[in-house]
């Protein structure tokens, strides 16, 4: 029931945005009584922060499976594709709603900031792992950070219009740059 | 009076976010009568789209002045600083509110999408100019696009917490990479 509520929350955020996502709408969509919803998540804030956190983690599990079949040739470009998919996914657009709402809501920011830091750290570690990179060498650390900032920027661009073609061309170039810049062990 | 309304709109978006920005609040803050406001901007959508568009352009004029004093040594890093400032400015955060609201509002998206395309094209052209780059050479075009996507991603990160230090380190590395990657005429 918790999971159903969290999934309905992300769906609502993606379709209706922050202000359209009310606990009433979510309960109805999840087919869960208002009392049960209040029992699991007393406030909208609890619900949304838990939902975005949990589904981001589940999405990372999906990515791990995709990463099991990475090719030898063109591996860097394939890794960028996997990482990029995270930033154009429904969960990213839901997180974007939460993130932007938190900018002007100090109480919400209190719970969103730690979530974002955790997700950021985990994604960074995951990128290092997929690319087989030691971040203490050269400027690897900054190059990986730049890569994730780039993917976040591409995700924001994708939120308004479908620019998959443009994104693909940018990532082709970025993969070449990464192969030149990353110092491998 | 138009300008005062537009400036008050951006201030409201930055402080109160999309849902807190009502035409009533804006009129009051601008010290403009409701009638006059309705005369200049019949709807919230008219007002916000005009305000973000106009103030983005004015901000670009400020950038042009900053760019007049670019140093010979370390020019690329200095250009990144000027461009980056645009993506962590109040106008960017106002635009972010508009952008995210437009994701789930088809009518709003109709007017925001052309604005974003225009601003995107202009910023791209401006980056080429400041860096003295011909985009038909090598993969210059993609590298400049990636730079602007990176700056957008850094701007989104800055919207939630002040990460100026991290941003500065990432841009230091990126300036070195740009100097290696851009093919100059």
Automatic annotation (TrEMBL), chains A, B:
Keywords: DNA-binding. The keyword Secreted does not apply. Pfam families: TetR_N (PF00440). The keyword Metal-binding does not apply. Residues 22-41 bind DNA. InterPro entries: Homeodomain-like_sf, HTH-type_TetR-like_transc_reg, HTH_TetR. Residues 1-59 form the HTH tetR-type domain. This is AcrR family transcriptional regulator. It comes from Aeromicrobium panaciterrae.
């Amino acid at each position: 029931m918790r999971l159903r509520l969290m999934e309905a929350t992300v769906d609502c955020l993606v379709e209706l945005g922050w202000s359209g996502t009310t606990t009433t709408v979510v309960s109805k969509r999840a087919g869960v009584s208002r009392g049960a919803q209040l029992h699991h998540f007393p406030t909208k804030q609890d619900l949304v922060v838990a939902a975005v956190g949990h589904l981001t983690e589940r999405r990372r599990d999906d990515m791990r499976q995709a990463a099991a079949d990475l090719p030898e040739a063109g591996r860097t470009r394939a890794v960028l594709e996997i990482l990029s998919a995270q930033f154009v996914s429904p969960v990213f657009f839901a997180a974007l709603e939460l993130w932007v709402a938190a900018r002007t809501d100090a109480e919400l920011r209190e719970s969103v900031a730690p979530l974002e830091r955790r997700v950021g750290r985990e994604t960074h570690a995951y990128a290092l792992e997929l690319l087989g990179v030691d971040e203490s060498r050269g400027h690897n650390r900054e190059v990986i950070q730049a890569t994730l900032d780039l993917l976040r920027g591409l995700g924001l661009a994708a939120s308004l219009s479908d620019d998959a073609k443009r994104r693909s061309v940018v990532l082709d170039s970025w993969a070449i740059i990464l192969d030149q810049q990353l110092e491998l062990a």
